[in-house]
Automatic annotation (TrEMBL):
Residue stretches spanning the membrane: 565-592
Topology with respect to the bilayer: Single-pass membrane protein
Name listed for the protein in its UniProt record: Cadherin domain-containing protein
PROSITE patterns in the cross-refs: CADHERIN_1, CADHERIN_2
Span of domain Cadherin: 1-103, 110-218, 247-330, 331-438, 458-549
Compartments reported by the entry: Membrane
The organism's place on the tree of life at top rank: Eukaryota
Pfam families (alphabetical): Cadherin
GO MF, one annotated term: calcium ion binding
tRNA-binding in keyword set: no
């Protein structure tokens, strides 16, 4: 026994048989003998193992049991022996079938494929719409239930499902409400049935059949129409066929549908206007002159064709409008002009000349395009000047333009077929504004196989120039040839014919790449030129490295890249060395400048602190002494030498003054810091001293006698008598130092 939802592929049981023979005589095969239907039979058996499995789905509601014969046979060579046995399989039902909802309509109503048709205005008072029956094909007993859902939002009826006397049978009723097709054209109901496990849905659509229960209506009453006076119209004998004479239409609106909405129209009798009874079209039967008839009022009616014949009356008011009696006239009805394609857009192409015999506003002309051809043009409505919105292009598909200009005055516009107009034909003239171009980019990269036979012609260049005539005629000029390999005949290797055919004069037997620069010119004025580059690669189809243009180009690019890499490294090295050299030069210049600034600073400081004018130095001893002891003389500065163990310092003040600008000789009062009388390097008077000897001595020190002091001075004068530098002009010994006159010009300032 199998449940009907047993998965496909499930192994059900194993048939086992035994054979006492050996070898092939004992080898057993299993098979199913004559299954009921091979296409729908759900079981298969493994011929070797005897395993029976399920290979298609089971359905209890279709087949509830299976009985079939299984045969076990050996593989004897002389005769195959077999044994048969019967196998019975029963299918167990499960709850897998949803509830079936069956709807049987009321005989009063039409029904077709879940659609119920009911006449509108049908009385509703617990109206029976149909009968519902629930069917469950499963054998398992379950409780069935049904519910109703109304899918429409604005429903005008109440619906209910009630139980009947039979099991799982129900009645659908409409309890109350109205059926009005003009309010609600259809009603959508949904039934949901369930057996506590599975759910079914059944949708019922109710269509309301229309009845002629509404009369026609008009948008307004009275209906107003306007028509211009038609004194200038050419009226035909039967104007009903002339659509231009139509005044308007009567359109009675009927909320019914189909034949119930059809109307027939009638108009009271008159001599000017008639009506089409089927369409409601109002039309003129003779011209109207506003000066004679300005206002017409008639009565019309709409009558339903279906019973009951509803009748609706409406008042019609027709007002006749005045029009201009004269139309503008062009001085020339047709003009043809030629302009170059580069004609500016801010300049008028042509001005329309027209006149109107009317006066005032009726004689003021407005210019408008009726036909704008295929180009965007502008026209000045007042002056009649025509401009182009865009620049022309002779190479486009439009070379001629036909413009029709309507002429209207500022009076009431005449709308008829005799409306006046003029025509302008504009013809473009070509200028040389396009360069020659190579159409096919594939011709920029050409691959030639050196293994193939030599052919003189390489390619016929596909060149185009959109201009016409001489402006579009092309001249070819081979400018230069570049190659990665130097040939003695590079410049004569290729030849370019004036028809665009490129030839080669010699056969190439090696891998190489050529770049040809070709100048394309036209014969127009001004000359338009284009420089194109044609790359020709000679390769070897038997060598995969050089079997195509891209591979050859890549090969030479990589080769060039390696060369450029070494050039880059070399250039970078030179750049770094140059940079370091410049940095060194800058540092040296900065150091020199810094040293010069220090030198200049020391000179200025020394001049201010240690200078004394030659006039002050050559004064008498008493004057010098007086200046030394004075503290109020201008430009004086006290310089005190340090104390010495051998020569105690006396509290004397020495005078220093700046040099005079007239002389380069400076009088310097020099007081050595660490000089002593017993040192070897002593400075004393020289023969050039003019009366300065001991002029600054104010007395002998108290710690020594005059004789001892004189002896010390003598020792000091003996030392370094001839060792003074050449630039010292005067020298004078003092008790605490020396006064020296030096010539300072700055050339060897450090030494001095």
């Amino acid at each position: 026994s199998l449940p009907e939802n047993t998965p496909i592929g499930t192994e059900l049981l194993t048939i086992s048989a035994s054979d006492a023979d050996k070898g092939l005589n004992g080898l057993i095969h299993y098979s199913i003998i004559n299954p009921p239907s091979s296409s729908s039979f759900p079981f298969i058996i493994n011929s070797t193992t005897g395993v029976i499995s399920l290979h298609s789905s089971l359905d209890y509601e279709i087949t509830r049991s299976y009985r079939f014969l299984i045969r076990a046979s050996d593989s004897g060579l002389v005769q195959s022996l077999f044994t048969d046995t019967w196998l019975s399989i029963s299918i167990k039902d499960i709850n897998d079938c949803p509830v079936e909802i069956m709807f049987l309509p009321n005989r009063r109503f039409q029904y077709d494929n879940q659609k119920l048709f009911i006449y509108e205005n049908t009385e509703i008072n617990n109206l029976t719409l149909g009968y519902i029956r629930l069917v469950d094909r499963d054998s398992i007993e379950t409780k069935l239930s049904i519910s109703l859902i109304i899918l429409d939002k604005q429903i005008k009826q109440d619906y209910e499902i009630i139980s009947s006397n039979q099991l799982n049978s129900y009645i659908l009723i409409a309890k109350q409400g109205i059926f009005d097709r003009e309010i609600q054209t259809e009603i959508n109901l949904r039934f949901i049935a369930t057996d506590s496990l599975l759910t079914s849905i059944y949708d019922l659509k109710i269509y309301l059949i229309d009845l002629n229960d509404n009369p026609s209506e008009f948008l307004s009453n009275p209906l107003k129409f306007y028509i211009e006076e038609l004194a200038n119209y050419h009226m035909i004998k039967y104007p009903i066929e002339d659509y231009q004479l139509t005044i308007g239409y009567l359109n009675g609106i009927d909320h019914d549908e189909g034949e119930n909405a059809l109307n027939q129209y009638e108009l009271e009798s008159n001599e000017f206007i008639k009506i089409d009874s089927n369409t409601g079209r109002l039309y003129l039967i003779q011209p109207l002159d506003r000066e004679q008839i300005e206002y017409i009022q008639l009565t019309a009616r709409a009558i339903n064709l279906a019973e009951p014949k509803w009748i609706t009356d409406v008042q019609i008011q027709i007002q006749v409008l005045d029009v201009n009696d004269n139309i503008p006239q062009c001085l020339t009805s047709y003009n043809r002009i030629s302009i170059p394609e580069n004609f500016p857009i801010d300049k008028p192409i042509i001005k329309i000349n027209a006149s109107d015999p009317d006066n005032g506003l009726n004689g003021t002309i407005n210019y408008r395009f009726r036909t704008n051809s295929t180009w965007l043009f502008n026209i000045n409505n007042i002056t009649g000047e025509i401009y182009s919105k865009e620049l022309f292009d002779y190479e486009s598909e439009y070379k001629n333009f036909l413009l029709i200009i309507d002429l209207e005055d500022n009076g009431n516009i005449i709308k008829n077929k005799n409306k006046n107009s003029c025509q302008i034909e504009i013809i473009l003239e070509d200028i040389n504004d396009n360069r020659p171009e190579l159409i096919s980019n594939e011709q920029k990269k050409i691959f030639l196989d050196i293994n193939k036979s030599y052919e003189n012609e390489i390619v016929l260049l596909n060149i185009t120039d959109k201009d016409s005539e001489l402006n579009g005629k092309i001249k070819y000029n081979l400018q230069s040839i570049e190659s990665n390999i130097n040939f003695n005949y590079n410049q004569t290797l290729f030849y370019l014919n004036q028809n665009g055919s490129l030839f080669i004069t010699n056969k190439i037997n090696q891998i190489c790449l050529f770049k040809l620069h070709i100048l394309l010119e036209d014969y127009g004025y001004p000359i338009q030129q284009t420089l194109i580059e044609i790359n020709i690669a000679f390769g070897n189809s038997f060598d995969s490295r050089y079997s195509s243009f891209d591979k050859i180009e890549k090969f030479f690019q990589e080769k060039s890249l390696h060369t450029n890499y070494f050039v880059f490294i070399f250039g970078l090295t030179i750049l770094i060395i140059t940079f370091l050299f410049l940095i060194s030069i800058i540092i040296i210049c900065l150091l020199i400048r810094q040293q010069h600034q220090r030198h200049k600073t020391r000179i200025i400081a020394r001049n201010k602190l240690l200078c004394s004018s030659s006039q002050q130095l050559t004064t008498s001893d008493s004057t010098v002494t007086s200046n030394i002891t004075s503290t109020s003389i201008e430009h004086q500065q006290i310089i005190r030498p340090p104390c010495s163990n051998e020569r105690p310092f006396t509290n004397e003040r020495l005078s220093i003054n700046c040099s005079s600008p007239e002389s380069h000789t400076y009088k310097i009062l020099h007081v050595p810091i660490d000089i002593h009388y017993n040192e070897k390097d002593k400075i004393d008077n020289i023969s050039c001293d003019h009366g300065y000897h001991e002029s600054y001595q104010t007395g002998t020190p108290s710690s020594s006698s005059p004789e001892q002091y004189s002896s010390e001075n003598s020792i000091r004068r003996d030392y370094m008598f001839n060792q003074l530098p050449y630039f010292v002009t005067k020298c004078k010994s003092l008790s605490e130092g020396f006064i020296v006159e030096m010539n300072v010009d700055g050339s060897d300032e450090e030494t001095r």
